[in-house]
Amino acid sequence: MQDTSVVDTQIHKISSLAGYQQSLNHLLVDSVNNGASIGFIAPLTRAQADHYWHSIECDLLNDSRELFVITEGSEVIGAVQLSLCQKANGAHRGEVEKLMVHSQYQGQGFAKQLMHTLEKSALQQQLKLLVLDTRLGDIASLLYEKLGYIEAGEIPQFALSSSGELQSTVLFYKLLK
């Protein structure tokens, strides 16, 4: 295990996966295989992660999605995405997706830093509303509440777990000012 007591990190908005692909694959596999409910079922393979990131690159290139990463040196240790609504009546809103921090770096405030960066970008684009969902009972709910997100409700049997159990999700929103 890596010593993370003093970590020199930077947050970047990236518009291309060039130079980040392997590191993003590693982050996604680590997150899913350590229990994150972010649209995949463990065990996630590198090939599955690679396929996912290739599908995201198109959204990055056409500006319908933003990807923020936090790096230590050349290694991505966290990421979050802002998906911009493409509907004419939804141009004022975005969806927070796939907030991930590598298991070795959790509990050090990196998720909060990523969320602040995402929100700042959303404000610069004059977005008025952010929405997200997270598995019922996940620790991420506490972070979202601390950041001012309001719980809007719960949807039962929303996602399938790695063990085959149907799990509920909680919807959150935040009005930006």
Automatic annotation (TrEMBL):
It comes from the Bacteria. PROSITE patterns: GNAT (PS51186). Gene3D superfamilies: 3.40.630.30. The keyword Acyltransferase applies. InterPro entries: Acyl_CoA_acyltransferase, Bact_Acetyltransf, GNAT_dom. Its EC number is 2.3.-.-. One of its GO terms (molecular function) is acyltransferase activity. It is an enzyme of class 2 (transferase). The keyword Nuclease does not apply. Keywords: Acyltransferase, Transferase. Residues 27-177 form the N-acetyltransferase domain. PANTHER family: ACETYLTRANSFERASE (PTHR43877:SF1), AMINOALKYLPHOSPHONATE N-ACETYLTRANSFERASE-RELATED-RELATED (PTHR43877). This is GNAT family N-acetyltransferase. It comes from Pseudoalteromonas rhizosphaerae.
